[in-house]
Amino acid sequence: MATSRFHDDAPDVDGLYADLATADLQPLWVQEGLLTRTPGRLTPHIWRWKTLRDLAERSGDLVGIDGGGDRRVLSLSHPDLGGQPFATHTLWGAVQFLGGGELAPAHRHTPAALRFVLEGSGVWTLVNGDPIHMAPGDLVLTPSWTWHEHHNPGREPMIWFDGLDVPLVRNLDAVFFEPGGDELSDYEPLPSSRSEIRYGGAGLLPVSGEPAVIEDPASGRSSRLLAYRWAATDAALSRLIESTGRGVASVRYADPATGRDIMPTLRAELHRVLAGHRTPTIRTAGSGIWVVYRGSGATVIDGRRFRWTAGDMLVTPSWAAVDHQAEDDADLFLVSDGPALEALGLARTETVEQQDVREDDAR
Ligand code: GTQ
Ligand code: FE2
User: Fold this and answer.
1) Burial of 214: CB neighbours in 10 Å, binned 0-12, 13-18, 19+
2) Residue 280: φ, ψ to 5°
3) pTM here?
4) 185 band by pLDDT with thresholds 50, 70 and 90
5) In a 3-state reduction of DSSP, which class is residue 185?
6) How far apart, in Å, are the Cα atoms of 59 and each of 50, 65, 159, 332?
C-alpha cells in the first residue's frame, strides 16, 4: 500500500525509481495488494458434470491413450489463473477418462494424488505394485513418489476425479517425475489390496509382518491405507446422522495408524447434507475443490449461490464464507490443502453468521 510518509514529488525521485529498477530492486511502499488484510486472490468457480462428462467422452473417442500423453485427463483450469491448468493456487483437479481395454502406463512423481471414483468400475490402479480395485465412491491414494498405473481390463469406460497438489509442489519447485519401464506389469486381481489387508481393519493395526506398501518414517509420510471404500464411508455417515439426529455430518479420511490426514499436503472429506438442511457457514485459510457425488442443492460462497447436481465440481477460495444446502440428500467430496497450511503454521478457520444470498448464479 502506498504511504504518504515518502515524498514522491521530491525532485530526484524519478531518478531513484529508475536506478532501483536497473538494480533489480523494488520499493515496498509502491506495492499494492501484497499484504492484504485477508486472503482473496481467487473467485469461486463451478464446472458442470454434463460438460465435463461430454468432453471427457469426446476425448476418449478422439484422443488415443498413446497419442494423448498416457493419461486422458482434463484439468480444471480456473479462469482467474491466467490459462494455467490449475483449479486453485495449490490444487490440481481433473476428470480422468479411461476406456475399456485401455492402460495408463506406470510412472511416479513428487506431487501426491488422490482419486475419487464417479462413474464405472473395474479399473485397477497399481500403487507400488499393489493392485487396487476402483468403484464409485471409493477414494484411492497415490502418495508422493509412489509408482502408479491404471488398467481398465473391462469393456466399459471409467471416469474419476483426480486431486493433486501440483501447483503447490511446482511453486516450491520440487517437482520430480520418472516414467516407468516399457515392460507391461502383470498383476493378480485379488479381492483385497495388500494395503487394505494390513490396514483396513477398523481400529486394528498389524503387530508384525511385511512392512506397509508406503512406509517412510524419515519424512513422517503416512498413507498406509491406500483405498477407502464407499460402503465404509457411507456407513460412517449414516451412523453419525442417526446418532446425532442432525441433518448434516462429515468425515475426514484419516491415516489409520496416526489419525492424521491421508497425505502431508492433501486433506479429503465427505460431507453429507440431508434434503432441506443447511450446514453452518465456515471460513478456512486454504482452498478446496468440492465434487458432488450424489444429490442436488446449492453452495453459498461469499454471498453467491451456486446450484449443483451430481458430478459438478466447485472451487472454494481461501477464506471465503462457505455453506451448503441440500435439495435432495447430498454427498459432497472435498479435497483441500489443509494439511499443508497446518504444517506451515498457517491454518485458520472460523464459523461465521449465516450469510445472505446476494447473487444467484445462473445455471
Ligand atoms: O493419473 O497419474 O490428473 O500423473 C494428473 C497427473 C492424473 C495420474 C492427473 C497424473 C495423473
Ligand atoms: Fe500420475
Assistant:
1) buried
2) -60, 160
3) 0.94
4) confident
5) coil
6) 14, 10, 12, 26
Taking residues 23-45, report their average pLDDT: 95
Domain boundaries, the chain: 45-360
What average pLDDT does the segment 310-339 reach? 98
- How far does the centroid of ligand 2 lie from the alpha carbon of residue 29, in Å? 43
Instruction: Look at residue 212 and tell me whether its pLDDT is greater than 70.
Output: no
Cα–ligand 1 centroid distance for 162 (angstroms)? 7
* Total length of the chain: 363
Of all protein residues, whose CA lies closest to atom 7 belonging to ligand 1? 162
Classify residue 209 as exposed, middle or buried by CB count within 10 Å of its CB (0-12, 13-18, 19+): exposed
Buried b (16+ CB within 10 A) or exposed e, 95-106: bbbbbeebbbbb
Which residue is it, cell 464446472? 47
Q: What is the pLDDT of residues 228-247, one digit of tens each?
A: 999 999 999 999 999 999 99
Question: 220-224, 248-252, 259-263, 331-335: which has the minimum mean pLDDT?
Answer: 220-224
Cβ 113 under 6 angstroms from ligand 1: yes
- DSSP helix/strand/coil, 229: coil
Whether 122 and 244 have beta carbons less than 8 Å apart is answered as no
Residue 361: all three cell numbers together = 448464479
Class of the CATH-defined domain 45-360: mainly beta
In this model, does residue 109 exceed pLDDT 60? yes
Q: Which residues pair with 305 in a beta bridge?
A: 300, 360
